[in-house]
Amino acid sequence: MSADRFGWHSELWAAPWSRVLRRALIVGGVIFAAALIGILSRPVGFLASIWPANALLLGMLLRTPRLTSGWCWLAAFIALVLADLLTGGKWLITLWLTAANLAGVAMAYWLYSHFHSVDRTLQSPLAVLHLFVFCFCGALASALVGCGASIVLFDRNIWVGLAYWFSAEMVNYITILPVILTFPYRRIVQWFQQTFAMRRVELDWLRLAPLFSLALSLGVMMAVGGSGAIALPVPALLWCALSYSLFSTMLVTLIFATIISVALARNLLPVFAHANFIDDTVSLRLGLTMLALGPLTVACINAARNKLVIQLDHAVNHDYLTDALSRATFEHRAGHALKECIAAGKPVAVLMMDLDHFKYINDHFGHRSGDLVLIEFARLVDGQLRKGDLFGRLGGEEFAVMLPGISREGALSVAERLRSMVAAHRFAGVDGKLLKATVSIGVGYLPAKQRIERERLLVRADEALYLAKNRGRNQVQIQDVQVPAAAKS
Question: Tell me: the pLDDT tens digits for 290-299?
Answer without folding.
Answer: 989 999 999 9
